[in-house]
Write a structure and sequence with these properties.
With about 140 residues, this protein is an alpha+beta fold. It contains 3 helices and 5 strands, in the order αββαβαββ. It has a 3-stranded antiparallel sheet with strand order 2-1-3. Strands 4-5 form a two-stranded antiparallel ribbon. Helix 1 (about 5-20) crosses helix 2.
Length: about 140
């Protein structure tokens, strides 16, 4: 399965996981073996270009398929920044799935060096300060 095909499948699986929470019947989708391998995903929901929910895992701790479904439902219904997604919004949301690789420390000399190393659309960044952290995908 090509990367674009995987992306379409992951998006369809995430949307189906959300729809099932509304009691909707969803089509049977393929479940290839790679969904059973450990994986970490973020699911981002937008509506009219505005963030509507975003929840994910920074490191793999369960099967990719399970992480995807749980994070899709969490982004839709349990993101503390937003009210739970309404049934009437389901057709209006855009679903984006980001698969995360294992985090690795960056070595850089200054801000310009750090920015030069980052590849837009490929790399994400985790900032940590004490117990706080933020993620940019």
């Amino acid at each position: 399965m090509s990367n674009p095909d995987r992306g379409r499948l992951l998006t369809a699986l995430a949307r189906a996981a959300i729809a099932r929470e509304f009691g909707m019947t969803t089509p049977t989708l393929p479940h290839p073996a790679w969904l059973n391998e450990p994986g970490a995903v973020f699911v981002t929901l937008t509506r009219n270009g505005q963030l509507r929910g975003c929840i994910g895992s920074l490191e793999a701790h369960r099967a990719l398929g399970l992480d995807l479904e749980d994070n899709a439902q969490a982004a839709a219904f349990r993101d503390p920044r937003f009210p739970a997604l309404g049934y009437d919004e389901l057709a209006q949301i855009n679903v984006e799935v980001s698969i995360l690789s294992k985090p690795a420390a960056m070595r850089f000399t200054d801000e310009a060096d750090a920015l030069a190393q980052l590849r837009p659309g490929i790399d994400g960044v985790i900032f940590k300060s004490g117990w706080r952290r933020s993620t940019f995908l």
